[in-house]
């Protein structure tokens, strides 16, 4: 069986006491089955980046980690990845900035990933690259002589060509993507947007059939691989952690009130400002709920160096202050807004205790929180998921209560509906979601991607490393 080499911008090097997150668990399962290697940045910056990756081994998986120097962190990571690609691919054209130096750093970093990975490769490796940080990695690896199957999975949306075109180097990015053998996306619209972009640059004849594109003699498989969760593991975590101190304290603080929960990274794509305003409107237009419900929003700070994140923080603090100032009582805080991380199992326990999970991104590749919320519920008395139609997850979780995250009146109405939904309807909606979650599990995600990558074996000459 071929070895699986996973490459991502950031890797979770195992640390004592720290449990890996859901995505890492899924990738690790795929790598453990194939004596794999995980290559990427360890999250550290140094005055000068080391020439060689650091190698660690645990449970049959090799971890090869590199560090960034300060300029790489600033120009590649904060600059082109988080300042250019992330906003544009989430349709934030106003927040998008393009700068040639940042793009040069992006190209150099993709080349450095390739240079440091090449000596570690074996001839029959399958290479699975993750996300928008590494669009050019396959191209750089092939320039270095590698000719092994390579696939890219994009965790975020792929925008329509009319948005992608805003990026001055979009043609180069598309061209580089075609050096992969398999391009995986979260949803059908993403794959169609990619294929539309290829057709717009190379003509409709490049779309050789429904699942492949061919340009310059290269045939590339395009497909939908919706990322999922491990329902049984989440059920266990949620049940066990309900007895934890953190859960008991949180529940005691509610004084019997109904709970609505939001769990997100603090990012403008997650629609938090719009969500907070909708909740304020809900308390205003449905005053009978005042002092009867609590909204717990957990959103740890991230990417604080980028200006947009400072703005969203300020907006959220203001809205929280205004709502709490307007509606709070001596024993009731309408919004509890926490900027901190919790262990995954504690979050699952919180979600199980909530009557509503509110997941309202203005744009999201998939959104695992929506799936985790549904998976964590007690099937006998499940909570209600309020879900934005702009999340990839909305394509699968059709029985959630769907909302437009920009429509605060519609969201206020959805919150009212969800708090008052009869048990039979909650069960019916939850059952339908569980069926999808079991079918499109995290296991199905990595298995189907790796199987597709493996189907390319034999269509390629063996790996050749260029002499010298
Ligand atoms: P993210 O944008 O990070 O991921 P998401 O899919 O919601 O978004 O995953 C977040 C993960 O982090 C979940 O497992 C969640 O439980 C965890 N998490 C969130 N807040 C937390 C907190 N406060 N404390 C601890 N854990 C927390 C990107 C894309 C998504 C895509 C995923 C996976 O943007 O669209 O679904 O990759 O492909």
In short, what is this structure?
The protein is an alpha/beta fold. It has helices spanning 22-32, 70-89, 100-117, 137-143, 161-164, 170-177, 188-202, 231-241, 245-254, 272-285, 307-327, 344-353, 368-376, 408-419, 423-439, 442-454, and strands spanning 4-10, 37-46, 54-58, 61-69, 126-130, 150-153, 182-185, 212-215, 218-224, 258-263, 293-298, 335-338, 356-359, 384-388, 401-403.
Rg measurement, Å:
23 Å
Strand content: 15-25%
The number of strands is 15
- Compounds present? adenosine-5'-diphosphate-glucose
Average pLDDT, rounded to a whole number, is 93
Explain this structure.
- The chain has 16 helices and 15 strands.
- The chain has 468 residues and is of the alpha/beta class.
- The protein folds into two domains: 4-228 and 444-454, Rossmann fold (3-Layer(aba) Sandwich); 231-439, Rossmann fold, CATH 3.40.50.
- The strands form two sheets. A nine-stranded mixed beta sheet has the order 3-4-2-1-5-6-7-9-8, with helices on both faces.
- Helix 11 (307-327) links the parallel strand 11 and strand 12 (335-338).
- Bound molecules: adenosine-5'-diphosphate-glucose.
- Adenosine-5'-diphosphate-glucose is lined by residues 21-23, 155-156, 227, 263-265, 298, 300, 341-342, 344, 347, 364-369, 372.
């Amino acid at each position: 069986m071929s070895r699986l080499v996973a490459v991502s911008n950031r890797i979770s090097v195992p640390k004592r006491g720290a449990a890996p997150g859901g995505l890492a668990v899924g990738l690790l399962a795929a790598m453990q089955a194939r004596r794999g290697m995980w290559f990427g940045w360890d999250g550290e910056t140094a005055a000068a980046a080391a020439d060689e990756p650091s190698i660690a081994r645990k449970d049959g998986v090799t971890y090869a980690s590199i560090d960034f120097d300060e300029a790489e962190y600033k120009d590649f990571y904060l600059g082109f990845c988080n300042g250019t690609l992330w906003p544009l691919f989430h349709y934030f054209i106003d927040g998008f900035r393009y700068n040639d130096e940042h793009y040069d750093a992006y190209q150099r970093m993709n080349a450095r990933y390739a240079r440091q990975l090449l000596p570690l490769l074996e001839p029959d490796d399958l290479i699975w690259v993750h996300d928008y940080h590494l669009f050019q990695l396959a191209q750089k690896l092939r320039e270095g002589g590698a000719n092994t199957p390579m696939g890219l999975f994009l965790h975020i949306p792929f925008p329509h060509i009319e948005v992608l075109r805003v990026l001055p180097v979009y043609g180069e990015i598309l061209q580089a993507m075609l050096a992969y053998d398999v391009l995986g996306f979260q949803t059908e619209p993403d794959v169609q947007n990619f294929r539309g972009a290829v057709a717009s640059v190379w003509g409709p004849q490049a779309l050789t059939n429904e699942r492949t594109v061919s340009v310059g003699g290269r045939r590339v498989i395009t497909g939908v691989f919706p990322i999922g969760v491990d329902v049984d593991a989440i059920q266990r975590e949620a049940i066990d952690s309900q007895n934890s101190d953190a859960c008991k304290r949180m529940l005691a603080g509610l004084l019997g009130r109904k709970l609505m929960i939001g769990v997100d990274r603090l990012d403008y794509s997650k629609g938090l400002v719009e969500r907070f305003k909708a909740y304020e409107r809900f308390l205003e237009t449905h005053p009978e709920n005042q002092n009867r419900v609590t909204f717990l929003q957990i959103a740890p700070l991230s990417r604080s160096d980028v200006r947009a994140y400072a703005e969203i923080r300020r907006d959220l603090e203001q809205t929280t202050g205004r709502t709490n100032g307007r509606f709070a009582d001596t024993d009731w805080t309408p919004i509890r807004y926490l900027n901190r991380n919790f262990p995954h199992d504690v979050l699952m326990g919180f979600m199980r205790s909530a009557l509503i999970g509110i997941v309202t991104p203005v744009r999201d590749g998939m959104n695992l929180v929506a799936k985790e919320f549904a998976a964590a519920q007690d099937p006998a008395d499940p909570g209600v998921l309020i879900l934005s139609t702009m999340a990839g997850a909305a394509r699968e979780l059709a029985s959630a209560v769907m909302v437009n995250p920009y429509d605060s009146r519609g969201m206020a109405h959805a919150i009212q509906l969800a708090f008052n939904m009869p048990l039979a309807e909650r069960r019916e909606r939850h059952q339908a979601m569980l069926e999808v979650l079991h079918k499109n599990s995290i296991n199905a995600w990595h298995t189907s991607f790796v199987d597709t990558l493996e189907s390319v074996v034999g269509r390629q000459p063996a790996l050749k490393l260029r002499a010298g």
